[in-house]
Design brief:
Length: 770
DNA sequence: CTATGTAAACAAC
DNA sequence: GTTGTTTACATAG
């Protein structure tokens, strides 16, 4: 009852009913908590083994190839496996296998691997061992194993391997199929940072077991900080410390851990507790509130109600869902981390080194920024981003490490299609991605000076990347159909190094439903009902989902400008873009040739949602979609716009440009939970990128015929016809850990204002526009 | 300024 | 009491 002075009273809050409760059918069938969801609770059972495990009390060693297996001092069901530096994986496996046999079913379920030697190898190898991570594997239920990877402290790595698959966790990774051992390998859970011997008492039981991973980061931290000295402390901390994941990320992990990709709130809580002991044991109860808050806050989380309406599940909007799982993330981290750590440690003074850039890297799984944050990219931005030509892998590969290391692991929801967006097509368009792991490297590697910039840029970069993807999706989804002919997006995948563990989702689902109910009428099909979805408007300060609120001041920038510059917007040098003109906004807004400015921001939401009630409605109820909007899918924008006219300076025009702008806006707006961040332009990187751009373009990308990819101004001007608009950029695919360059070639004959008359116009392409 | 985290008020069950 | 929403405020970057 306290009334907070600050907080306005909520006069009324009304739940939206869903039209489709029928969808529930699906639900009904499904049990709420879902099979998958994991019945974390059940897991608890594990302990049973203990008794027997103890079979080998004391530190008994089971030497196998120099590998020592010792009972964990405090964990009854765990054993510590000391692995000599040069031990090969097979030996380890053999040792564990032998141990496992020896112990029988009752044996220890977990093994903590400690290697003093070259941890890296182990990982790698293990990694190899681990088979695929496909998530979809039903595995959840049973498979329980998770891998836990401990960071590699240079000193030691530890891994817990759960031998038995008992744990029901759903880790994606779990591929039950494999032998027990495999499973165990497969599931790596996080180990805390146990620094050293890691034998310290660990009260955490199952937690340990499950998948929490302690990010290496932690490990790193540990090292840095208090570190290891007291193993106990570190050990405990590992479990007690808060995971480096944001709530948003954890929720995603939880939901994606289930087969159906949906989870009830309660199960989410449970999953998190199970996987991150911190929340079970240390966190204040308020964390649940935070979870709920995040669910409500982020558009990517969609609540679906069972047919009967009694059960509500939380799902991740397909468009936004990267299907990340803890496992995947973990694996990724694995890859990257080593490098990072190296760099970090190795160079105690990181700064000095070129590596400095890295240093800046965010924690792999930063709770922060980019992590999991949906990034919306306005088309324009994409334009802005220019890949550096350098991207070529050369050094990169070698550098791959660097790259990776440098690369923050971002888990960003794929696209954040704005709720508005109707994204139907997943990837109809031919999109190629080229991921160059090495790509970044150039940046990093290059000049030291720049590196910093690079760094920064990187982050932004990452964002940009994501954005790009979005844009792709964006295009592909919404536009693709219409544009297909004309538009070609390419992303050329070049993965240097590793195959993506993560499978990019081309989520099947995508097609299904649009993020926002608003848009797609069709979505009705969905089994479940989507309850939420609204666009967000801006909110003043409060953060209700981020919207794209752009400062009114800023005006939309033309994506494709008629003027030579238009394309040139490219970052590079264009002062305008890059600099002030529309720093961020530029990305978000597009100006109509007319000069109209369309600020998207919050207005949009309102428009969509029409949420009279709350000033800042976050998610619009699906049901409410405006008719017109619904009809046209994606682009009901225009109409939309009109209404919003208030906000918009001018009514939307069908003019091609306008469309573009809209779209861009949409993106931005749309889901945009995340606001555009500082545009790429701003970031220092740009320059770098630009510079190279040309080359790049010419490179692989160019392969595509008609489409010219260059975004670089020069090129544009010279080479490109006005009609063509190219969006070129790099995409960082967190999932794959790779960088992708994407070229989006949107060429219309007459796109630009100047040319409008000429050939095709957007409107032509898209009837609706007219 | 943004993204996040946290606390809290409130609403609807 | 639980689940969801939405504010408000705080903090880190």
């Amino acid at each position: 009852m306290k009334s907070s002075p600050h907080r306005p009273l909520i006069l009324k809050r009304r739940k939206l009913s869903f039209p489709h409760s029928d969808a529930a059918s699906t639900l009904a069938g499904d049990e709420p908590s879902g099979q998958n969801v994991g019945s974390p609770k059940q897991e608890e059972a594990k302990p049973k083994e203990h008794g027997t495990n103890k079979t080998e009390p004391g530190n008994r060693e089971v030497p196998v190839g120099g590998i020592k297996i010792i009972d964990h001092p405090t964990l009854s069901d765990a054993q510590v496996v000391a692995i000599p530096a040069n031990t090969d994986v097979q030996s380890i496996i053999d040792a564990l296998t032998a141990k496992g046999k020896e112990s029988g079913s009752n044996g220890p379920s977990k093994f903590i691997l400690i290697s003093s030697g070259s941890p890296r190898m182990e990982r790698r190898e293990f990694k190899n061992l681990f088979k695929s991570d496909e998530e979809h594997s039903t595995a959840h239920d049973k498979a329980g194993e998770d891998e836990k990877y401990i960071g590699q402290s240079s000193a030691l790595m530890e891994e817990l391997l759960s031998m038995d698959g008992r744990e029901p966790e759903e880790n994606s990774s779990a591929e039950t199929t494999s032998s027990v051992l495999d499973n165990s390998l497969t599931n790596i859970q996080w180990l805390g940072n146990m620094s050293s011997s890691g034998l310290s008492p660990c009260s955490v039981k199952k937690e340990t077991e499950k998948e929490n991973q302690t990010p290496k980061q932690k490990a790193i931290k540990a090292e840095e900080g208090s570190a290891a000295s007291s193993s106990t402390t570190s050990w405990q901390e590992s479990f007690s410390e808060r995971p480096p994941y944001s709530y948003m990320a954890m929720i995603q992990f939880a939901i994606n851990s289930t087969e159906k990709k949906r989870m009830m709130l309660k199960d989410i809580y449970t999953w998190i507790e199970d996987h991150f002991p911190y929340f079970k044991h240390v966190a204040k109860p308020g964390w649940k509130n935070s979870i709920r808050h995040n669910l409500s806050l982020h558009d990517m989380f969609v609540r679906e109600t069972s047919a009967n309406g009694k059960i509500s599940f939380w799902t991740i909007h397909p468009e936004a869902n990267r299907y990340l799982t803890l496992d995947q993330v973990f694996k990724q981290q694995k890859r990257h981390i080593p490098d990072l750590q190296k760099s970090m440690r190795g160079t105690s003074g990181r700064k000095n080194e070129p590596q400095a850039a890295r240093r800046k890297m965010k924690p792999l799984l930063p709770r922060v920024n980019s992590y999991l944050v949906p990034i919306h990219f306005p088309l324009s931005q994409s334009v802005i981003l220019q890949p550096s030509s350098k991207m070529p892998l050369p050094a990169s590969q070698g550098a791959s490490e660097t790259m990776q290391s440098s690369k923050p692991v971002c888990i960003a929801p794929k696209v954040l299609p704005s709720s508005e967006e109707p994204t139907l097509l997943p990837a109809p368009i031919p999109i190629k991605e080229e991921t160059c792991d090495g790509e970044l490297s150039p940046f990093t590697s290059q000049q030291s000076i720049k590196q910093d910039a690079c760094w920064i840029s990187k982050e932004s970069f990452a964002a940009a990347l994501h954005i790009k993807e979005e844009s792709d999706n964006f295009h592909s989804n919404t536009w693709a159909p219409q544009f297909l002919p004309t538009v070609s997006t390419k992303v050329e995948p070049e993965q240097l190094g590793e195959p993506p563990d993560i499978v990019l989702p081309a989520p099947p689902a995508k097609q299904k439903r649009p993020f926002t109910a608003l848009k797609s009428p069709s979505r009705s099909k969905l089994d479940t009902l989507v309850i939420k979805r609204q666009e967000r408007q801006e909110m003043g300060r409060s953060r209700r989902k981020q919207h794209l609120a752009l400062p009114s001041s800023e005006e939309p920038v033309l994506l494709l400008q008629p003027t030579s510059r238009s394309e040139s917007c490219t970052v590079g040098n264009d002062p305008p873009f890059a600099t002030d003109t529309h720093p961020l906004e530029s990305t978000s807004q597009f100006s109509c040739s007319q000069g109209e400015v369309i600020p998207f921001k919050s207005a949009i939401k309102e428009m969509f949602c029409k949420l009279p009630i709350s000033s800042v409605p976050s998610k619009a109820p699906i049901t409410t979609p405006a008719p017109f909007l619904a009809t046209t899918d994606p682009w009901r924008l225009a109409p939309f716009v009109k209404e919003t006219s208030d906000l918009l300076c001018s009514p939307v025009r069908t003019s091609p440009t306008s469309l573009i702008s809209l779209q861009g806006n949409l993106d931005i707006l749309g889901l945009g939970s995340t606001p555009l961040r500082p545009s790429l332009c701003d970031s220092p990187q740009l320059p770098l990128l630009n510079a190279e751009t040309n080359d790049m373009v010419s490179g692989p990308l160019t392969s595509s015929p008609a489409t010219s990819k260059q975004s670089s101004p020069e090129l544009q001007a010279s080479a490109l016809p006005e009609n063509h608009s190219f969006l070129e950029g790099l995409v960082l695919d967190t999932m794959n850990d790779s960088l992708s360059k994407i070229l989006l070639d949107v060429s219309f004959p007459g796109l630009e204002d100047d040319n409008l008359g000429t050939d095709l116009s957007w409107s032509q392409l898209i009837p609706e526009l007219k």
